[in-house]
């Protein structure tokens, strides 16, 4: 159980600034995910924490101790690798015991810990196998058990599931989550799969080009994005351009007061599942932006249907759960839609979410 | 670490982050020290010596002027080129023919053919030359046999003989390199060419050869360099066919009055020739050859009827002639001798002589070659690791420097080492150490290359995993990397042992009475006409060699082309 503080980490490769002053705090026992597009610096940050690379500036503090001057093998940080990195010349049991041997643990204790590890990752009975006799998913389970066996202060995982097929990925991610909770090891997990991040994390850190865009629970990141990048990267999002109009922003037929100084370049964002399709023409007109949209395409997916609509403010995609027979017949027609205020997020030109008042 | 050390450890950013320093820096420094001491310094001394007038000791270009104006040296240059190009051409024809026949047709006993080719390849260097003399020399068995039935054939001596010997000695390199490439030519490409109406022969030249051009040119370069560096063959059967290697050696031998400056200049010319060919080969193979991922193995035809017989005869003739010297040596080692003359009958006389009077070379060979191989393997593995895992300018430059021994003939390396270590500050002449040093620096690049290649197959995250589990980088290397690349390293070590045991040219420059090695002793025996003794020593060497090769093959799962 350890708390990690990352303070203004800077890293450049040549002229390229890969990490631009990253500040993060990971609470004890937390499952913390770094999420971001390829090349944003996730691996670099992870390797700096592990000690395989050295930051140009900044501090890494675990439980109040600075560890960034220590060599990697003295940091007590477990790692799980994308390519498993299971030692091919050692059996599964020897792999799991490898880190314990370095700690000079007695034979009996090692055996107990290895058995426990095998049980934990559901590889009982495979202890004497060589890695070449295991599937990819099983090898990664060995990698996980091996890293967990030393009960590290921190566990780092760099896209551990990306070499596995979809079904295994879901199974193993559930197991990772369960084991981590059971042992309470503070974990930093790297992925660029947003669904995986939402499913597994206590908190998610969305990164872009070496900058932390937003840190929050999966719910916060998905439902209340603080940054335009986070809103766009996690899940699907409709963006609608909003012009300024005398201290207010104008969306289609109506204007809204905003807290930030109204300038051009504002964008309004709403998730497809929050767009109300076929809204009644009257009723709670105050709580929503009401628009007309020509239905260009309907894609029926069983559980839900996707509508592509042409509206006066641009193209909007709506998602309707459990659609009725009538609603699937509207292709080519113009229908009414509503964007409820409480589901809409407004972003400034700089990409920050900004509050807006209800229409008056 | 401050200053330079700090800069170095920052340059090693790929390693672990820490205040102290990465132990691999020590390896890098050590590797550069070795290269400086055993390669740069000696070769620099030779270069300097080549500019020194033998009579006055002043700096001058006399030696080079002589090389390019005096008739005998110009002849040596011409002969060297002739031998190099001739040996190369002959080896290419034999090797490519054998490769084509065995990869495109179903030839009976392919394994036997490969074994014979490997025997030819690893036979001690001028067992070849000497066995040819025994068979086709002035009193050669075959010649005399033919003469008794009235057929006169010319002796093997002279340019033709040298080129023939080179061709049959070096073709296995070509065979092994090109059969790998031929086996990887996509069948669809060849079929497409046939569909376009090219006759099989034109298809061969227009499609197949261009596709395997990189392998052919690599093999050509190798055989050229081997041919011009070979010393024993022209010396023993060249007679008045002088080449640069023999001239340099003669000029260097002090018994003949000696002219080290001139010998150095000839050495430089020899290196220049090799380098010129390396550059040429680079130019030729600049074009990329694409390997599609939809691979269809080439079609193997049945060899039946007259054509089948002819193909089998060609294939077996090539390998049998290639292995003939080794076979001859073994047979002759059991013949009864009286002095230098062979008598009818079988005996163990020659072996008794080896045991009673000339056992020193056997022990020397074993001791020197194991010592150098041990050093080669340790240094080669560490350097291979640096090159593949710590990419940065200092290691890249090191890798580049290690190209040099590929183009430095053994005789030149010997001359360089003796020039440098003949007197203060380091006087080592006459010790076994210089012989070991020469073999070490000549073969280090092969070992470093193969270790680097083995490491490239290994994910760097394996070592990182060990480090994250609490092992220091050095222990992680020993506990994870070494066991994993171990079998490959050991196989490479056995192949180094083969070359170390058979090293003649540099040892010949460096030996003294007490440090004679087997190849040197065989050479001396042949010069003295003691063919029985030479045969017995050659056979012993051959057995040791074959044992090492067999061990290497067992360890590497019979992927012989990756070894040689
Ligand atoms: N050793 C290095 N030398 C130079 N540039 C590097 C090095 N390592 C990483 N980079 C660069 O730093 C940037 C961040 O790389 P990093 O591997 O951290 O990205 P990532 O977020 O892990 O991406 P991915 O999702 O593809 O794994 C990339 O632009 C990469 O090209
Ligand atoms: Mg990455």
From TrEMBL, chain A:
Residues 4-234 form the ABC transporter domain. Gene3D superfamilies: P-loop containing nucleotide triphosphate hydrolases (3.40.50.300). GO terms for molecular function: ATP binding. It comes from the Bacteria. Keywords: ATP-binding, Nucleotide-binding, Transport. The keyword NAD does not apply. InterPro entries: AAA+_ATPase, ABC_SmlMolc_Importer, ABC_transporter-like_ATP-bd, ABC_transporter-like_CS, Mo/tungstate-bd_C_term_dom, P-loop_NTPase, Transp-assoc_OB_typ2. Belongs to the ABC transporter superfamily. This is ABC transporter ATP-binding protein. The lineage of its organism: Bacteria, Pseudomonadati, Pseudomonadota, Alphaproteobacteria, Hyphomicrobiales.
Automatic annotation (TrEMBL), chain B:
It is found in: Cell inner membrane; Cell membrane. The keyword Ribosomal protein does not apply. CDD domains: TM_PBP2. It holds the Pfam family BPD_transp_1. It is a multi-pass membrane protein. InterPro entries: MetI-like (IPR000515), MetI-like_sf (IPR035906). Keywords: Cell inner membrane, Cell membrane, Membrane, Transmembrane, Transmembrane helix, Transport. Coiled coil: none annotated. The keyword Hydrolase does not apply. Gene3D superfamilies: MetI-like. It comes from the Bacteria. Belongs to the binding-protein-dependent transport system permease family. This is Iron ABC transporter permease. It comes from Alsobacter ponti.
